[in-house]
Amino acid sequence: MIDIKLICSVCTRNDYYYGLIDATAKELGLEYSLEKVPYQQEMREQKLFNRCTITYCAGCNNFNKYGNYGNPSVKFMPALVINDEMVSHSCVPSKDELKKILSNYLS
Q1: What is the value of pTM for the model shown?
Q2: Secondary structure of the chain in the HEC alphabet?
Q3: Which of the residues 6, 7, 64, 78 has the least number of beta carbons within 10 Å of its own beta carbon?
Q4: Strand duo 85-89 + 79-82: pairing
């Protein structure tokens, strides 16, 4: 069984991401647990930054086009953690990218 955590803010985009993770893991036939973790719980532990604002959302993936958002040493939410290893951060991967990530955990 793999342990999947989505560390994220309260955002409808993250609800979509959570559903995409769930559907893709089921499609691959993985045995898994999936948890949405509010960012305050693990943000400091994982050294994540929150770039969301209350009044404006450009979308997670749009932020990667500017400044440090493409820098792998600077990590932003949402972050995907599988078995205590961060495998994705700073964007919402496409279904194909997510499938590649999760395929690494097939038995």
Answers
A1: 0.80
A2: CEEEEEEECCCHHHHHHHHHHHHHHHHHCCCEEEEEEEHHHHCCCCCEECCCCCCCCCCHHHHCCCHHHHCCCCEECCEEEECCEEEEECCCCCHHHHHHHHHCCCC
A3: 64
A4: antiparallel
Structure tokens at 30: 């993985």
Which domains are seen in the chain, by residue range? 2-103 (3.40.30.10)
Tens place of pLDDT per residue across the chain (107 aa): 999 999 887 777 788 999 999 999 999 999 999 999 876 656 666 777 676 655 555 555 555 444 444 566 777 778 899 999 999 888 888 899 999 999 999 97
Residue 91 near residue 60, CB atoms below 8 Å: yes
